[in-house]
Description:
By secondary structure, the protein is an alpha+beta fold.
Amino acid sequence: MKVLRVDRYSGFEALLDREDPATINPAADRDGILAALRGIYPPEKEQLGALAIEIVLLVTGHP
């Protein structure tokens, strides 16, 4: 696995304003993703910010 980028956002809504929801969860819309994230993380955790991490999987044996 190789990290291509890491972006920090002030919270989940800011993250969803800039990132394509389909890359987060193709089976859910923006509201569904927001509800799921807020169901996992309480408001005090969201206030710490949110990260978007883009990765690429590498074939075994290759850098």
